[in-house]
Amino acid sequence: MSRSEPRSPVLTVTGLTVSTVDTELVRDVSLRVDRGERVGLIGESGSGKSLTASAVLGLLPEGVRATGSVRLAGVDHDLLGASERALAALRGRRMTLVFQEPMTALNPAMRVVDQVAEVMLVHRTRPDRRSARAAAVELLDRVRLPDPADTARAYPHQLSGGQRQRVVLAIALANDPDLLICDEPTTALDVTVQARMLELIRAATARSTGLLFITHDLAVVASLCDRVLVMYGGRLVESGPVHQVFTAPRHPYTRGLLAASDLTATDERGRLRTIPGSVPGAGQFPAGCVFRTRCDRADQACGQLPDWRGTPEHGHACWHPTHPGGGAP
Amino acid sequence: MSGVEDIPSGPVPGAGTRAGRRGANASLLVGGALVAAVVLLALVSFLWTPHDPTLVDAPNRLRGPSAAHWLGTDRFGRDVASQVMVGARTTLFVGVVAVGVAALVGTPLGVLAAMSSRRLGELVMRGNDLVLAFPALLLAIMFGAVFGADTLTAMLAIGIATAPSFARLARGGAVEVLGTEYVLAARVAGRRRLAIAVRHVLPNIAGLVIVQTSVSFGIAVLAEAALSFLGLGTRPPTPSWGRMLQESQELLTVSPRLALVPGLAIALAVLGFNLLGDGLRDRLDPRLEARG
Amino acid sequence: MLFQLTRRLLILLASLAVASVLVFGFMAVLPGDPAQVALGVNATPELLARTRHEFGLDRPLVVRYLDWIGGLLTGDFGRSYVTGERIGPSLVDRYGVTLWLVGAGMLVAVLIAVPAGVLAAVRHRRISGAVISGLSQLGVAVPGFLAGIVLVQVFAVSLGLVPSGGWTPPVVDPVEFLLGLILPALSLGLVQGAVLTRYVRSAVLDVLREDYIRTARAKGLTPFRALLRHGLRNAAVPVVTVLGLQLTTLLVGAVVVERVFVIPGLGSLLLDAVGNRDLLVVQDVVMVLVLTVLLVNFLVDVLYAVLNPRLRQVG
């Protein structure tokens, strides 16, 4: 397959809703990731960001259903509702996932090299076990693991968390995917290890791979991503280029997140700023605007669901957006 | 308006948790009902049985179920229904004593192993492993060989053989409790070990012990049945489900009912205690909540 | 690994030593006089004294213990107090029979439990999974000898497909041997299989929730292949431990099942010895059974370490 020019979408999600029998966990999420683009998806835990990623990959837990549309470039059918076999052929080949827990993401009873080689053997991108193993060692070198040949023979418990996460990244990159989804890949790591990991992800997605990077760490998004999507209560509340969203947030929730992450900003009593209240449990979000129970700008109008204003690539859903610049009206 | 409401953040309602709860409730209900039925049978048998369960009535031998004999009669003409009722008494009696011995010996030993010095703890647990190498039946056979088999040797054997599972469980639970901050605080405050054991450890492992009691009861019922079947348990003429089965074996072709009735009684009683244990586990041990 | 192995081996030897003292002490000290027990209350004092001397029962306990244990180590199990025959040959013979039973029962249990447990775990939200769980719950509650009685009634007495009991050694007639093994193996294996199914199910359920299964699926493995390649080996670790404990249960279960099917195994030898008050036979058989249990536990520990690479590195 020929690589098309940048700015063509690799992932297009439209109207994605994820629900259990009686509760909607993600509602009407639409997003797009272009080739070579790095998109950050941020929100507090419980905002539905990980479920969104799982829905894209078709790895939702049992008893959880997704509706809407998920399209991957070069695939002529919708991923939602596709057969398990069709999805399995895409996972690990065209779209891959690096997720949060490096300590548990690898099989404890299998050598690292075989776990990396497996993803190439499953998709037959290497002809035999030998060449797959050789390629695996190369990949381990590419993610800058020290002594890749030795590391390859190790079992996961012999590696540190950062090393394991690099093995997981090597697995994800093995077949040169079009779409790489990272679900909080650095949360469990030390700060210095985290920086190196981010550098690797940046290098890996420099060419034509699209990246969807899920995190609650705004600093990581600021340093890594081109564009950012903000989720709250299972809904997208704001999106746009990182620079613009972070300097001029329109949604009060985004503003709250930014204020909470700014360690130099304090309130009138000298305490760090936080968003008041806590994230409600799933299914307990209010009708209308999901954020209104914690929002200091909420009024009667917020009982109605706010429309999306702007373009899908840059917009927000709020009745009372803050003005560009972040000040009060 | 500030619009901040204090909405507690509940757990994500995974379908699994709910299904698990529902399953636990069903287990608890069915298990509880079966156990209650056995207990009721045993209690009623003290006051009333349709017939004297040991009364030999030769003319009426091997009769099928009738108004006079609900479950028929055995080869001596004894009333099967009455035997089952009194057999429930035997089963429960053996179970209570055996499991009681096991819990009262095993639990303190386990707590001791957790709270004492490493060397003593290790010693207790090694001894524990050693006792595990002597299954209940083997112990009962040894006791039987030496003292002559009866209900007492069966109860003791089952009790001793079951004690290690209590010790192991109690030790595990106690180690966990001892690592908590409130126990640390109690220690810092200078509380004596015995006081900590009684005030903190025992109440916190009570749930585990109760679950184990129910499960062990099922095992004890099975063991008693097996021992009586081998002639190493309850002696005639005291009715026992295991011996009823053994006596029925050679009459299987003539009257399968004689095996079916005590067999069903044993299976249902064991099922009851197992289900009750499962249900209680899900109720009392939050860590296992999600497991099926 | 080597250190672990040595340590385990030492524990095994120590356990065996203590167990032998327990068995000997219990049989020798508590009953008073084995000769009296063997000969009955009507024996004359002279006969009693002669028998005591003949079997070395008039020697000090320590000497008797050392004599017994020394004999065991050299394969000499002593002579029966009742018949005066050597115990060793028949014990070895019957041990073989019981091992066949236990092995066949274990095979049946595993053949039932692994597929049923995996299926019940994979389909734990569907009817089929619930049905398997329910059946296993029922199976656990059925005593092995009851299963045996019912099996005999149906397949031997009513249908006449297989013998209802007895034992044909494999060297005499392999076909008859296998036919005769079917029912005892089933009555041992069905019940243990039900128990094991529950453990397999919960081990597989645990493994299915592991992140590395998700990783495997993110690699493009179908759920079934992910479980097969990454799940089963990890699920095997807890199951093997249970399997070891089950061998103990099967060994004991065999004692009862031998009674149902009139099979001349270790269990029959033991029960007959109890009936005849043949205390040295009881003592020998109990020791052999305990030895087997301890040996199995040791092997399970070793296997556990082999299956679990995290333990292999320690020490």
TrEMBL record, chain A:
InterPro entries: AAA+_ATPase, ABC_Ni/Peptide_Import, ABC_transporter-like_ATP-bd, ABC_transporter-like_CS, Oligopep_ABC_C, P-loop_NTPase. Its main location: membrane. SUPFAM superfamilies: P-loop containing nucleoside triphosphate hydrolases. GO terms for biological process: peptide transport. GO terms for molecular function: ATP binding; ATP hydrolysis activity. Residues 11-258 form the ABC transporter domain. GO terms for cellular component: plasma membrane. Pfam families: ABC_tran (PF00005), oligo_HPY (PF08352). It is found in: Cell membrane. Keywords: ATP-binding, Cell membrane, Membrane, Nucleotide-binding, Transport. The keyword Nucleotide-binding applies. It is a peripheral membrane protein. Belongs to the ABC transporter superfamily. This is Oligopeptide/dipeptide ABC transporter, ATP-binding protein, C-terminal domain-containing protein. The lineage of its organism: Bacteria, Bacillati, Actinomycetota, Actinomycetes, Pseudonocardiales.
TrEMBL record, chain B:
CDD domains: TM_PBP2. GO terms for cellular component: plasma membrane. Pfam families: BPD_transp_1. GO terms for biological process: transmembrane transport. The keyword Oxidoreductase does not apply. Keywords: Cell membrane, Membrane, Transmembrane, Transmembrane helix, Transport. InterPro entries: BP-dependent_transpt_permease, MetI-like, MetI-like_sf. Residues 88-277 form the ABC transmembrane type-1 domain. The keyword Nucleus does not apply. Its main location: membrane. The chain crosses the membrane at residues 28-48, 92-115, 127-146, 201-234, 254-277. It is a multi-pass membrane protein. It is found in: Cell membrane. Gene3D superfamilies: MetI-like. Belongs to the binding-protein-dependent transport system permease family. PANTHER family: OLIGOPEPTIDE TRANSPORT SYSTEM PERMEASE PROTEIN APPC, PEPTIDE ABC TRANSPORTER PERMEASE PROTEIN. This is Peptide/nickel transport system permease protein. It comes from Goodfellowiella coeruleoviolacea. The lineage of its organism: Bacteria, Bacillati, Actinomycetota, Actinomycetes, Pseudonocardiales.
TrEMBL record, chain C:
Keywords: Cell membrane, Membrane, Transmembrane, Transmembrane helix, Transport. This is Peptide/nickel transport system permease protein. Pfam families: BPD_transp_1, BPD_transp_1_N. Residues 95-300 form the ABC transmembrane type-1 domain. It comes from Goodfellowiella coeruleoviolacea. GO terms for molecular function: dipeptide transmembrane transporter activity. Belongs to the binding-protein-dependent transport system permease family. It is found in: Cell membrane. The chain crosses the membrane at residues 99-122, 134-157, 177-200, 235-257, 285-307. Its main location: membrane. One of its GO terms (cellular component) is plasma membrane.
